[in-house]
Amino acid sequence: AFNRTVAKDNSLAVGFFQRGFVHLQLEMYEEALSDYHTAFSHLRKNPFIDYKQLGLRHILYAWEVLYSMAAVQCRLQQWQEARATLEKAVVWRPEGRTAVLDMALEKVQNCLVLEPMQVPLGEFFRPRKKEVEQLDSKDFLGKPKVISSIIPNDEYFGFEPLRLQKQSFYEPSADALR
């Protein structure tokens, strides 16, 4: 499902983030690391992306992506890289809230594996009702009208195939001549 999701929208950072978590669960560490790198690059140097507008009640933070990336690096026994990634995550973490990352740095120094971050269980994309109602087709143009015709007495509204020509139909009326 995540493969199809990121194939339809390859800029969906949260899709890569969640697929990275699934790859990590399946012990596909290289794929997980690649997905976390992609998710971080799709944040486009923003500290977070708020997906509430799309119907997912979750905010994906850059530091969470980096933390999960460090968790994969721990499983690959890349302790120096994990430490560098966590130090990068400290820069992206909001001010005064680095306790989680400080504990993670201590674990990495002691060569202990980190548990990755994930979107909370039970969170799904659910667009708001008013947004889904707007998906119905709307007629913005209205009924078509003929506003100009080369036929002087033409009162037809709409479109139709060519009509049979009648005798004296194309001649202007007596009122039009005056």
TrEMBL record:
It comes from the Eukaryota. GO terms for molecular function: superoxide-generating NADPH oxidase activator activity. Signal peptide: none annotated. One of its GO terms (biological process) is superoxide anion generation. This is NOXA1 oxidase. It comes from Oreotrochilus melanogaster. The gene is Noxa1.
